[in-house]
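seq as requested:
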Amino acid sequence: MTINHAGVLKKEYFISYMKLIMNAFGCSVEEAKDKTFERLFRLREIEMGQETYAQFLLAYRDLMKHSND
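struct tokens:
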């Protein structure tokens, strides 16, 4: 997936990205969150901006909610 550094990445982007990680690696939502945080944010919340990080957290919460259904 290509990342446009000029704007804020939305929750839907992160949901798709983490689902891709889960399918590719056969991992849990928590593991996908960790891999995404490492790969895209380089383990720094401010790497891609505060709004993008907030969208990332919203995506994680949404995936967690749906994985418990």
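The chain has one domain: 11-67.
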